[in-house]
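Data card: per-record layout.
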Amino acid sequence: TLKPIALNHKILSLFKTPNPQTILLPFAGAYSEVIAAYQVGFDTIIGCELNPEYIKIGESRLAYYMNKGKRLF
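The structure for this 73-residue chain is written out next.
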């Protein structure tokens, strides 16, 4: 299900430690969790999505947040 980036950020922050971490997001969808994981500071983010339309949307959303450095909270 689609969740706001801010909610994903709060959830993922609970699991982030100072050690290098990899996160697997098996249902990346429109990349809300991927963006939140990037903002939280995970070292390696692996997102999987089968639908090419969602991948295209997600990649453009991720590029926007990475280039603009936009934070929602």
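Known properties of this structure: The helical segments are 5-13, 32-40, 52-68. The two ends are 21 Å apart (CA to CA).

See the next section for split statistics.
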